[in-house]
Prior knowledge:
By secondary structure, the chain is an alpha/beta fold. The chain has 28 helices and 27 strands. It has a seven-stranded mixed β-sheet with strand order 13-23-24-25-21-26-27, sandwiched between helices. Strand 8 and strand 9 form a beta hairpin.
Amino acid sequence: MSSPTAAVKLPRPKKLTPMMRQYLEIKDRHPDCILFFRMGDFYEMFLEDAVLASSLLEITLTSREKGKETAVPMCGVPHHSAANYIAKLVERGHKVAICEQVEDPKAATKLLKRDVVQVVTPGLVTDTEMIDARLPRYLAAAVATGRDGKVAGGWGMAYLDVTTGEFRAADVGDGERLSEELGRVGPHEVLFGGDAVDEVPAWIGPGVRGALVEEIPELAAAKKLLSEHFEVPGLEGFELEGLGPGLVAAAVVLDYVERNHKAALPNVHMLARHVGEAMFIGEATQRNLELFQTLAGGRRQGTLLWLLDRTKTAMGGRLMRRWLAYPLLDTVEIDGRQGAVAELVARGDTRKRMRDTLREVGDLERLSGKVAMRSANGRDLRALGRSLGALPELLALLGDSSSALIRQTLGSVDTLDAVRDLLDRALVDDPPTAVADGGIIREGFDGEIDELRAIQKGGRGWIAELQQAERERTGISTLKIGFNRVFGYYIEITKARLGGDNIPENYERRQTLTNAERYVTPELKEMEGKVLGAQERANALEYQRFCELREEMALHLESLRRTSAAIAILDVVGSLADLAVERRYVRPHVHDGYELTLSGARHPVVEAMIEEERFVPNDVNFDRDTKRLIVITGPNMSGKSTILRQTALVALLAQMGSFVPAEAARVGVVDRIFTRVGASDDLARGRSTFMVEMTETATILLNATDRSLVILDEIGRGTSTFDGLSIAWAVAEHIYEIGARTLFATHYHELTDLSRTLEAVENMNVAVKKWQGKIVFLRRLVEGGVSRSYGIEVAELAGLPPVVISRAKKVLENLETAELDETGLPKFAPPPLEAEGAKGRQLDLFLGGDEVKRKALIDELARVGVEELTPLEALLQLDELRKKARELGQKGGGNK
C-alpha cells in the first residue's frame, strides 16, 4: 500500500488577511488534501501544501511578505495547465482538493466566495486527460462484516470506474480470495473498513493508495443508499441476489465518491456482479505469467497483454484486458468468441477495412460518461459525432456475417443518424476547449448568433476605418487602436509623437504607459459598447446552445453505452484475428473433458520477441489415466520455464476465446491456473524467499482441483537439499492425488523415481547436446529423465572466471565419486595451492608421502570387496585403511 509523503504542518501566521482566513477555513475542512486555491488565472498553494507540492512538482517556492516573520510559503500553477500538475500529485498517492471561485467577480462586493468543487484521488479521477485511455481507473472498497455467523457476514468488495460508470460488487469469501480478486481488478485506490481494517492493508499491492473508512453501514442501510442513488424502490432488478458484504462495499464506494466528487453521478447507472463463471487466475499467476506487467521492471512491453492488444479504440483496449483477466469456463461461449475470430481470420479484406474504420471511433464509453456528468466540451461532442459517422460503414462491412456473436453484437449498434447530423450542423470542425468563450457553434446553425457575430465583424471593420481616419487627422502614422480586457478599446500614441496641437480635443486620456499614452473618444466608447455587448451576448447564447446540445446527447446515453460495448467486442475479436493471421495461430478445440493436448506449442511472447534464433515448438499431453503429472528435468537455460509458461498461456488464450500459438490444441476446460515459479522475497510483509515459496505452494495444494492446471518450477530449492527434496516429493504426491494437470520442473533428479510408484507420472527432459566441450541447448522436450543439470556449464556461459569453473569441476568430481577424507566424511576437492613453489603441482587424493606406498594403498583400497564384508568387518577394514593413510600423510607433510 503506498503511503504518500505527509506534509509537516507549519505554524499559522498570527495576523490573517481575509483571503488567508478563507484559505485556512477551507483547508481545515480538507486536512488530508493538497488544496488548489483558485486566485484569478492561478491555483495557489500555501504553507505546508506549498512546501510539499513545490518539491513534488519541481516548481518555485516563494512566499508572501518575503523576509518577514509573517512570511507564508506559497507556490502556484496556471489554471489552464493544472490537470498535468494534479495528475502528478495523484499518481504519487496524494489527494487534491480543487477550490474554485463560486461567485461572479462582477457581482462580488467584497472577498470572492470560494469552495471545494471536487476532490481528486488516485481512484477518483474524472478528467480523462489525466489517465491512460486503455486502462480502467478503479476505486475499490474491501470490507469484512459479521464474522460471528450472521447472514451478511464475510468479506465483500466493490469497484467503480467513474469515467465509464462501470460498477461491480461481489462477496469473496475469505481474505485470501479478496487479495487475489483485488489483484485481478487492479484498483488505483482501495477503501477498507469493518473487521478487515487490520488485514486489508497487507493485501493492497504496491503503488495503490489505501484509505481507511472508520464506519461502514449495516446491510439494510447499504441497500437503502444504493436504491436512492439508482432511484429504484429496491435492488431486485440488478440480479444481485444473495450479495451481502459486497453490497456494503458498494455503498462505501458510492458514499466516498458522492462526498468527494460533489456533483451528480448520472453515468453510474448500474451495479453488476463482479464477474460470472470465469477461470481463476491469482495474483501470483498473473505475475509469474507476466500477463500485465513484466517481472523485470514492471513494464507493459513484453507482457501477454502487450502482444494481444492491437485494438483501435480505447474501450476495445480495456475490454481486451478484461477478457484476459477473466477467461471463460463455458465452452459454448468460448466457441462463440472463437467463431467470431475465425470469420475475421478468413475474411482478410473485411477485417482490414473494419480495423481501418475503427480508427475513426473515439472512446464512446468515456465520452458518454462525460456527457452524463455534463463535463463534455465541444471537442468531446465533435469526437462523438465523428465516431457515430464511422458506424454505418461497420454495419455494411459485417452485415452478412455468419458468426452468431458478430450478428448479436451488430444488433446493439445504434448509428444515431439524427444525433450525428445535429452535431455536424451545430459544431465547428475544431471547437475550442473552453465552452463559454464562444467560437463553438457553426455559422448558419443559429440566426441570432450569426446576427451578433455580424455586429462584431462590422464593429471591427469600423475600428479599422477609424484608425486610418485618426492617423490622417492627427498626422501620426504610428497611431493605433488596440484592446485589452481591463480598459477595452483605446487609441495609443507613443510619447515621441506627442506635442504640439496634434492631439485632438475630444481625446480623453485613459492610461499612461512608460513610452506611450492611451486615449478614448466618445465615438470609440459608443462602438465599444456595441461590439463588446454583441460579443458578450453571442458568447452567452453560444454557451446556452451548447448546453442544450449536450442535454440532447444525454437523452441517448443508453444507446451510446450499448453501442460502445458492441464496438469494443468487434475491436477485440478483430485484434485477435489480426494476431492469429500474423503469428500463424490455430483455433483450439475447448471441451469439458480432462485431456489437454498441445502439438507444436509455442510461447506467444517469447516467440514474438526473439530475433536471433527460431523458436522451437514442443508437445505437451495430459491424460487422466496415464499422464497427469509430468516431471521435467534438464539444465538451467534449456527452456524448462518457457515450456511451463507457454502451456499455461495457451490454455488461458484458448479459454478467453483467442486462437493459440500451436499446430493443434485440445484443451479440457481449466478452472484455475496456479504457478509457483522463480525465487522472490516479500520483505515488506516479513517473508523470506523460502517462506514466499512455501506460501504459494500451500495456496496451490489447498485450492487446486482435478480441473486445474498447475505449474511448479523448483519446489524446495530455498532450503537444505534433503529438506527441499523431501518437500518436493511430498508436494508431487499430494498434487497427483488431487488429480490436477501438473507440470513439475525440478533439479531434484530423484523425483524421476515417482514414475515407479505412481502410474500417471511421466518423466520428460529438455534435451541438450555436448559439442566440443560445450553444451548446446536443443529446447526440445523429450521423454525420460536426466541425472545431471549442467549447472557448471551454464555458469561458464554466464562468464564466471575460468579459475572458479575449474575449481567447481574438481569439487563436483569429488562429490560425484563420494570420496572420503581421513575422518570418514565426504571429501571436497582440496583447495588450490597458493605457494609460489607449488604452481603446476598435481592435486592428488593424498598430499605428499612415498609414491610407492601411496600407490599400494590405493590398490588395496580398490581391492576391498565392500559387498562381501559384514558391517563389523567393514568398520575394521576402514579403520586399518585410515591408519595407513594418516601415516602416509604425516611422512609426506600432507594433511592429517
